[in-house]
Hints:
Blueprint: E1 19-26, E2 31-38, E3 50-57, E4 60-67, E5 79-84, H1 92-95, E6 103-110, E7 122-128, H2 133-144, E8 151-157, H3 166-174, E9 179-185, E10 199-200, H4 207-213, E11 221-226, H5 229-241, E12 249-251, H6 276-283
Parallel strand pairs: 7-8, 7-11, 8-9, 9-10, 11-12
Antiparallel strand pairs: 1-2, 1-6, 2-5, 3-4, 3-6
Amino acid sequence: MMMPEDTRVIDASSELYNADLVRRADETDDLAYFWVRARGEPVSFEPGQYLTIGVFADGKLVQRPYSVASSPRESRDGYEFYIRLVPILRFTTLLWRLPIGHGMRVTGPKGRFMLEPDDDRTHLFISTGTGIAPFISMTRTLLMDRVPRRTLIAHGVSYARELGYRGELEQLARDGYPLTYVPTVSRPSDPANAGWTGRTGRVEAILDDVCEEHRLVPERTVVYICGNPEMILKAEALMQGRGFPEPHVKKELYWPKGKGMPPAVDVTRGRPVSDRAVQVAAEH
């Protein structure tokens, strides 16, 4: 990956910084987990919602919205985000340069991509890339609240090394949580996937088999989809073709059907413009 040189000067302090970067763990060269902790009382959010995080650089606030992967029950320890480094001069090239302890700006939460209360149907979570993050928050929260729901997580990536949270999900299944983890890689012939013996193909391409193998029927299943917008549309169409009515298929579609992706705009101090579509298309 050719990464452009980012010469923007990150502002060391700002009166608008209300949180700090407290931890980072790298999954690959361009995938990492970040923990951002509020300086005051943490904001409350629901699993599945997103927060907007940012820093000032050259006097301008540059920020992006990200789904929270941690449970709201753990907010005092910080919000966890699973983020991909995008090789363009936007927010992530600043984030990757940020030292632990640096101030940040956090706002939100926003989003209606949340679990329905007391829903005892089987939950099918479909995601690509970092789009798995809201499902991690949902699963962790259900586990902590001791109200597990039968769950299947279908996660599609290009390379097996990009299967974020794989170890955690496999361990949950071994420990008896009613979860079936279904990872798939879309480039099985690539040398980087040598040794992969799991499913292959794009995640939407395996959904028919997943539904048949696990006997998922519309009357007893609810579907949540998050990730690449093209995948979302294909997966939604496939599930509806299997008889799942629209209310049973929940998704985060960040621009209307048939519309092109709008251009990205950095956020400035006086004119905040935040575009959720850019994050999903570029970073999921």
